[in-house]
Structures are given as C-alpha cells and as structure tokens.
Amino acid sequence: IFLLKHHLLPFVNKYNNKLHLVYVKNVVDCLIFAIYNDEMFKSTYIIADKEVLSINEVLTIISQAVGSKPPYRFSPFLISFLKNIPILRKKINAIFKNREYDISKLLSIGYTPSYSARESLFNSCHYF
Asked: Which whole number is the average pLDDT over 72-87?
C-alpha cells in the first residue's frame, strides 16, 4: 500500500496473472458454516473469495482505495529481459505465477462467500 500510495510500484499490462484472495469475514463465515454442516468434516476445503482478480485489478483497486494514481506500467520487454538474468528468473516467475484455486468443492456443499473480493479489498485498503 505504501509503494502504491507513493507511486513506487509498477505493473505490467501484458501479464494478467490471477490472484485468488480471501476476505477475513468470508473465512469467519465459512468457519461458522462448518460448525453447522457435518459435510465439512469429511474432506479438506480451500476457502477463497468467489471472484479471482488479476494482479492489475488488485493494484488498481488498492490505488483507488488509498487515493493514489494507478501504478505506472512496465514494458513487457523489460520483464522478458530481466527473466534472462539467472539470479532474477526464479523471483520474476514467482511474481507472475497464477494463484487461482478451485473452490468448487466448497461451493458444492452449499457455502457461498458473502463478500465480494473487489469491495472487500477496496474497503480493507481504504480503512488501512
């Protein structure tokens, strides 16, 4: 948030990697759902928000929440160049890795996240 607020964190338009967030109130709701649903004790479930956001969406929402300009954009060429440097390759690949999870098993037993990922992220960052 500090980096975005002071316009120090760029993003790359070309990379639209996904980030699956979970709002703490959705976690609490799911835990309460588990107390009253015996099906939850038969398996392991991934808890996450229903919507999956791109990193670009996340950075834009955070910027809006803290009243900052949207992050400036890096050239995809620069990222391709940096990936060719052995010491940076692993770190850059980790940054641009998709982090999208399958919550269909949780949804199939009747749980639905109450809070939207976009609204939750905006409100959390605005509050912070």
From this structure: 80
Closest CA to 120 of 72, 71, 57: 57
Residues 6+ apart with CB under 8 A from 84: none
DSSP letter at 102?
-
What count of other Cβ atoms lies within 10 Å of the Cβ of residue 76? Answer: 12
Confidence check: pLDDT of 76 > 80: no
Burial of 23 (0-12, 13-18, 19+ CB in 10 A): buried
The model's pTM is: 0.79
Asked whether residue 9 carries a pLDDT value surpassing 90, the answer given is no
Which residues, 6 or more positions from 11, have their beta carbon under 8 angstroms from its beta carbon?
55, 56, 59, 71, 73, 74
